[in-house]
Write a structure and sequence with these properties.
This is Carbon-monoxide dehydrogenase large subunit. Its EC number is 1.2.7.4. InterPro entries: Ald_Oxase/Xan_DH_a/b, Ald_Oxase/Xan_DH_a/b_sf, Ald_Oxase/xanthine_DH-like, AldOxase/xan_DH_MoCoBD1, AldOxase/xan_DH_MoCoBD2, AldOxase/xan_DH_Mopterin-bd_sf. Pfam families: Ald_Xan_dh_C, MoCoBD_1, MoCoBD_2. It comes from Neoroseomonas alkaliterrae. By secondary structure, the chain is α+β, with helices and mostly antiparallel strands. The strands form 7 sheets. Strands 3-5-1-12-9-10-11 form a 7-stranded mixed β-sheet, sandwiched between helices. Strands 7-15-14-13-8 form a 5-stranded mixed β-sheet, sandwiched between helices. It folds into 5 domains: 106 residues, Aldehyde oxidase/xanthine dehydrogenase, a/b hammerhead (Aldehyde Oxidoreductase, domain 3); 166 residues, Aldehyde Oxidoreductase, domain 4 (2-Layer Sandwich), CATH 3.30.365.10; 95 residues, Aldehyde oxidase/xanthine dehydrogenase, molybdopterin binding domain (Aldehyde Oxidoreductase, domain 4), CATH 3.30.365.10; 194 residues, Aldehyde Oxidoreductase, domain 4 (2-Layer Sandwich); 149 residues, Aldehyde oxidase/xanthine dehydrogenase, molybdopterin binding domain (Aldehyde Oxidoreductase, domain 4, 2-Layer Sandwich), CATH 3.30.365.10. 29% of the residues lie in helices and 23% in strands. The protein has 20 helices and 28 strands.
């Protein structure tokens, strides 16, 4: 007989695939969110950092006497006071092409011998109030002998450049290579056509809505540090602070994170301020709070991007790609962040392949220290840049060869029958319909209607261009991730996991996953992420992996709940465990209508007396998901721009994207993530650039002189999905958080180049640059 049972109505409303509004939003929109700066602990005092006004210089002395004597001051601290603490360093085990290891740089909490960028912290003041601490910080006297500075990576690696460290010859910390240089050279030698572009990926200020803020305290009886701050994962940050900096066992450190107003990679790791306030809290026996101001954020928060690249593509006479090559300088800034070396090396390598069957690739990158703010991950972290390079090469090659750029892409796409596909990068792609995604995007964008729109623009004296950005991202592989489900006495069901929501909206999709698997009431589900004491594992949020990691861990924990529930239900229903079935939140005896709901079962287990040894006394479960393979979200973005030749101003007129994010748990949130990434890509393409003077002074130190995209800079977005579920995780999800940047950089810049008749200009495509390109200036 056919199964005519109606599905649980709640699954139609809250199940996987439903556009459920974010459950966090009412709290945040009514001002009830709890960010770090909202917290005021009893007895709290304030910290203000003293930063170098020079980009490079020798510290001859720091005068603290006047500051110490000022009202309310409790202490003034320099590097000598912080000598007991360990350094921050790059944690990734990179090797140069000659086999030698990365030349690491150990950064203490405060600069001791030299300052190496404007904003380098050299001291800090703690006082009863923030105003008192700020006044005293201004009274600290710095005796710094200025040295020549260098801000560009290629210039820093050139002979005769100022040297930042005695142990880093030529300022090069890593001379990276991936690929067979001889085979790639042979491919270029026999190519019918070679396209080469010099491309700059401009340096970006992260500009999170919430500046960094932290409160440090010390529990003397337990000998434990407690740090409250916004971050991207409390488990990993706790381990870094404990192991590397505070030099204590992990249980002696607790990290607490509430709401976080954005990060995009920047708040993932430890910063000098955290050790400083924890030291002062232990010494003074009082909580110490530090909150950055926006100008301080521009100087001290890790920046993003900043690569100078020569990109080349070798093509045979039929138009097939033979090899792609990137030769780059990566600007690391003055110190090495935890992951800063990865963007222009590992992530360039994994992502330059994109969705094309290019058989050979070569990535050569010199990572170089300069007298600038350190670089770290920024939304995509090398993935958008690599896709941008590839798409600019393809578009330019098609124009140079007189070929249709769409046909050129179709010819080189990896075909569905080639999966699993081993890419030249070493990645193994499991799924994707790349040509189908491209074709859907062309139709959605009305590609064939472009000539009429171009003619209409021309009639008004405007230039119109269209650009296409195919992309494929290799997400970060999910690390070990905790999945825990707790049935509370109040009828709640709590998920505990080690990713961390800093704006994405984890509560709702995680609850959808749990609701779909266990049938527990959606409105009773709670989420705990921001307390390191609750975690035994956790990879944090980053690399577009959170749903793959936590979602899979939740499913693994739910399977344990179901197995425990079958044993418990068998005991209560007086049936054999093997006769108990589970579906739609209910345990039933097979072939009967006798059963018990999962919530009722959880309550009964709390109420009844001693149970047999083989019967669980609760349905709670805790598990750790082992590491899982990366996934490969992909898509196609199409942008049309209109340019005023008199002013060089760009207006984005139309924007469409078609994406393969695998199984989409919540379409509403996924589309929002795509919109955010697209807007940030538009920001980098049109507006944003950190600029320095020759002596290392930042020219873009506030929102008065640093351009961000505004509402009137972006159009309404067309968004469609053409999913091909991932085969390497149980949800079938591929990740979406960074894909908007990967598609928008090439789509916008290809559109501008098209409007300019094929000319290449670097990001940001400001009116000045575009006007100069138009008028040959």
């Amino acid at each position: 007989m056919p199964d005519t049972a109606m599905p649980d109505p709640s699954l139609l409303k809250y199940g996987i695939g439903q556009p459920v509004p974010r459950q966090e939003d009412p709290l945040l929109l009514t001002g009830r969110g709890r960010y770090t700066d909202d917290i005021a602990l009893e007895g709290q005092v304030w910290c203000v950092m003293v930063r170098s006004p020079y980009a490079h210089g020798i510290i001859r002395g720091i005068g603290t006497e006047a500051a110490r004597a000022m009202p309310g001051v409790l202490g003034v601290f320099t590097a000598a006071d912080m000598a007991e603490y360990g350094p921050m360093r790059c944690l990734l085990p990179f090797t140069s092409k000659d086999g030698s290891p990365l030349i690491n740089i150990e950064r203490g909490p405060l600069a001791a011998d030299k300052v190496r960028f404007v904003g380098d912290p050299v001291a800090f003041v703690v006082a009863e109030t923030k105003a008192q601490a700020r006044d005293a910080a201004e009274a600290v006297e710095l005796d710094i002998e200025p040295l020549e500075a260098v801000t560009e990576a290629s210039a820093a690696a050139a002979p005769g450049a100022p040297q930042l460290y005695d142990h880093v010859p030529g300022n090069v910390v890593l001379d990276f290579r991936h690929g067979d240089a001889e085979k790639v050279a042979e491919a270029f030698a026999k190519a019918a056509h070679v396209t080469t572009l010099r491309i700059r990926s401009n340096r970006i200020v992260v500009c999170a809505m919430e500046p960094r803020s932290a409160i440090g305290s010390f529990e003397a009886e337990e000998g434990r540090y407690v740090l409250r701050l916004g971050c991207q994962g409390v488990f990993g940050l706790r381990n870094q602070l404990a192991r590397d900096i505070l030099k204590v066992s992990p249980e002696k450190v607790r990290i607490l994170t509430g709401n976080v107003g954005g990060s995009f990679g920047m708040k993932a790791s430890a910063y000098p301020e955290y050790a400083c306030i924890l030291h002062a809290a232990k010494l003074l026996g009082r909580p110490v709070k530090w909150t950055d101001e926006r100008t301080g954020s521009f100087l001290s928060d890790c920046h993003g991007r900043d690569h100078e690249t020569e990109a080349s593509l070798a093509i045979d006479a039929e138009g097939r790609f033979l090899a792609v090559k990137l030769v780059s300088y990566g600007n690391m800034g003055a110190y090495l962040s935890t992951v800063g070396n990865n963007m222009g090396t590992g992530n360039f390598t994994k992502n330059i392949q994109s969705n094309y069957a290019t058989p050979l690739l070569l990535v050569e990158t010199k990572n170089v220290v300069t007298n600038t703010t350190p670089i770290s991950a920024y939304r995509g972290a090398g993935r958008p840049e690599a896709n941008y390079f590839m798409e600019r090469l393809i578009e330019t090659a098609a124009r140079e060869m007189g070929k249709d750029p769409i046909a050129l892409r179709r010819l080189n796409h990896i075909r569905p029958e080639q999966f699993p596909f081993r890419a030249a990068s070493g990645s193994i792609y499991d799924s994707g319909h790349f040509t189908a995604v491209l074709d859907r995007a062309l139709a959605a964008a009305d590609w064939d209607g472009f000539p009429a729109r171009k003619a209409e623009s021309a009639a008004r004296g405007m230039l119109r261009g269209r650009g296409l950005g195919n992309f494929l991202e290799c997400t970060a592989p999910p690390l070990k991730e905790q999945g825990e489900i707790v049935f509370g006495e109040d009828g709640s069901v709590t998920i505990v996991t080690g990713t961390l929501d800093y704006g994405q909206g984890h509560w709702t999709p995680f609850a959808q996953v749990l609701h779909a698997r266990l049938g527990v009431p959606f409105e009773r589900i709670r989420l705990v992420q921001g307390d390191s004491d609750r975690l035994i594992a956790g990879g944090g949020t980053g690399g577009s992996k959170s749903l793959m990691a936590s979602g899979s861990a939740i499913l693994q924990a739910a399977d344990i709940v179901i197995e425990k529930g079958r044993r418990a239900a068998g005991y209560i229903l007086e049936a054999a465990t093997e006769d108990i079935e589970f579906a739609d939140g209910r345990f039933t005896i097979a072939g009967t209508d006798r059963g018990i709901g999962i919530m009722e079962l959880a309550a009964r287990l709390r109420e009844i007396g001693p149970l047999p040894q083989d019967v669980p006394n609760a349905l709670d479960s805790r598990t750790v998901l082992d590491q899982a393979p990366m996934a490969f979200p992909n898509g196609c973005h199409i942008c049309e721009v209109e340019i005023d030749p008199e002013t060089g101003h760009v207006r984005i007129d139309r924007y469409t994207s078609v994406n393969d994010f695998g199984v989409i748990v919540n379409p509403l949130l996924v589309e929002g993530q795509a919109h955010g990434g697209i807007v940030q890509g538009i920001g980098q393409a049109l507006h944003e650039r950190v600029a320095y003077t020759e002596d290392g002074q930042p020219l873009t130190g506030s929102f008065m002189d640093y351009g961000l995209p505004r509402a009137d800079d972006v159009p309404f977005f067309g968004f469609e999905s053409l999913p091909d579920p991932c085969k390497t995780n149980p949800l079938g999800a591929k990740g979406c958080g960074e894909a908007g940047c990967a598609g928008s950089l090439p789509a916008v810049m290809n559109a501008i180049s098209d409007a300019l008749g094929g000319k290449h200009i670097d990001m940001p495509a400001t009116p000045e640059r575009i006007w100069a390109a138009i008028h040959g200036a």
